[in-house]
């Protein structure tokens, strides 16, 4: 065995080191809010901030549930859509609690809604001017008879490439484009 040891050492030294190639994509943006959720949860635990704790825990539970599906949440764009779903659920819950005259639950939901909106505002979104440009390009690309809401929306969403955008503004602008053209 001792005769083979020097040969093994020479073989390790003689082999060239493997080169690794790191690709950088300028189109994919780094997540801003997603990696920070865990540290925010720890800070909320230390501060004993119950509304923040419940909001972040519900976000993390939805992220974990989505990781078991075909489309896991890995970008801020996907996280933005998840936060928007939770905001919509919270606003419906607030209206139901107000109808039931449960002011204590309304207050809890409003605190959680504020936290969710804070996270949604921190995620960088597509500018309205860029959305307007995409809509105008989609309208020009389509023939007069084929300008429907769905066809324009499909082209605009293809241009957005998964980046978060204000969907209410987008829907309003597409309806305006269809109405005047």
UniProtKB/TrEMBL annotation:
Localization per record: Mitochondrion
UniProt GO molecular function: carbon-nitrogen ligase activity, with glutamine as amido-N-donor
Family to which the UniProt record says this protein belongs: Belongs to the AIM41 family.
Record-linked InterPro entries: Asn/Gln_tRNA_amidoTrase-B-like (IPR003789), GatB_Yqey_C_2 (IPR023168), YqeY/Aim41 (IPR019004), YqeY/Aim41_N (IPR042184)
Name of protein: Altered inheritance of mitochondria protein 41
UniProt key word tRNA-binding: no
Gene3D superfamilies per UniProt: 1.10.10.410, Uncharacterised protein YqeY/AIM41 PF09424, N-terminal domain (1.10.1510.10)
GO cellular component: mitochondrion
Gene name of the encoded protein: AIM41
Keywords, sorted A to Z: Mitochondrion
Taxon lineage: Eukaryota, Fungi, Dikarya, Ascomycota, Pezizomycotina
